[in-house]
């Protein structure tokens, strides 16, 4: 069965279309990390591009914790060479750890960069030395996966988006083959930045095509007696290819609700939702406007 990973972009950035709280204060971060420990969340997802998320994780994590981290990097924008420091060692210093569970390419364009081979040498050396348990990429779609497998065939960690509205990439033959050879699969975007948990009446005009699916989710919730949160988590948690489910929270209350739903999501309810346009499923093309709370 898969495990729960806490995403920490909100620890360093004011992120998320349904986030009305902004960047999370230190005291709340500390409390969230304690709650995570109490609920056996041991892996945290972060990135060099997430503001000061890595620094705050290193500073605010409970003393004596057994936390593990997956971080992501981007190649220097000034064209300078990749180094062990800017690929992963600087992140380790900020996180105050001697090893990393995983290091991922954050930007797919870096896989087309002339500095790719040097970067792969650094990552493979770190894995061979036992400093990095896994190396891989964070992707959005099939084209990304195709590129990743072409230039980085020995990757052993893949992070991809999937949720109750869009399982196509997760259920592809390619992901099946990767899983069969031991690649670890982490799934993000299970809440679609919180949209799947939003009341249909709160949707902006752009997200209006999502309304039938949200209404259907609420109906399934009423029939089964399970919360929408449980329903959307269970479908991914119990998927045969999934090793870990990555979630984010903007408050103590949200994290408590998520951990409770995760622990309650012991069964998967089989249901189908109305299809939605592709642009609704890709946050990269969303309007840069927050939803009304």
Give me the secondary-structure topology.
Layout: E1 3-7, H1 26-38, E2 43-45, H2 53-60, E3 68-73, H3 84-95, E4 100-105, H4 116-128, E5 132-138, H5 142-151, E6 157-161, H6 173-180, E7 184-188, H7 211-224, H8 228-237, E8 244-247, H9 252-264, H10 278-281
Parallel strand pairs: 1-2, 1-8, 2-3, 3-4, 4-5, 5-6, 6-7, 7-8
Overview of the structural elements:
By secondary structure, this protein is an alpha/beta fold. Helix content is 36%, strand content 14%. It has ten helices and eight strands. The protein has helices at 26-38, 53-60, 84-95, 116-128, 142-151, 173-180, 211-224, 228-237, 252-264, 278-281; strands at 3-7, 43-45, 68-73, 100-105, 132-138, 157-161, 184-188, 244-247. The chain has an eight-stranded parallel beta barrel with strand order 1-2-3-4-5-6-7-8, surrounded by four helices. Strand 4 (100-105), helix 4 and strand 5 form a beta-alpha-beta unit. Helix 8 crosses helix 9. The mean pLDDT is 93.
């Amino acid at each position: 069965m898969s495990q729960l990973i806490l995403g920490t972009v909100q620890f360093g950035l004011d992120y998320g279309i349904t986030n009305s709280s902004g960047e999370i204060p230190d005291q709340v971060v500390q409390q969230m990390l304690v709650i995570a420990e109490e609920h056996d969340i041991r892996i945290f997802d972060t990135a060099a591009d997430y503001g000061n998320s890595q620094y705050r994780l290193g500073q605010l994590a409970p003393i004596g914790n057994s936390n593990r981290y997956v971080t992501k990097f981007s190649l220097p924008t000034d064209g300078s060479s990749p180094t062990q420091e800017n690929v992963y060692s600087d992140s380790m210093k900020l996180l105050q750890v001697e090893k990393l569970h995983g290091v991922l390419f954050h930007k797919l364009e870096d896989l087309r960069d002339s500095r790719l081979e040097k970067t792969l040498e650094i990552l493979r050396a770190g894995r061979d030395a036992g400093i990095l348990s896994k190396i891989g990429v964070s992707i959005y779609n099939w084209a990304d996966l195709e590129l990743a497998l072409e230039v980085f065939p020995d990757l052993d960690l893949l992070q991809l988006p999937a949720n109750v509205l869009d399982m196509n990439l997760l259920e592809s033959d390619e992901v099946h083959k990767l899983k069969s050879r031991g690649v670890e699969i982490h799934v993000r975007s299970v809440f679609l930045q919180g949209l799947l948990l939003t009341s249909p009446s709160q949707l902006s005009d752009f997200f209006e095509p999502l309304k039938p699916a949200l209404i259907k989710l609420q109906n399934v919730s009423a029939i089964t007696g399970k919360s929408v949160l449980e329903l959307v988590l269970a479908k991914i948690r119990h998927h045969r290819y999934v090793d870990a489910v990555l979630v984010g929270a903007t408050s103590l209350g949200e994290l408590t609700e998520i951990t409770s739903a995760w622990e309650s999501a012991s069964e998967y309810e089989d249901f189908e939702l109305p299809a939605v346009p592709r642009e609704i499923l890709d946050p990269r093309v969303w309007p840069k406007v927050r939803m009304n709370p």
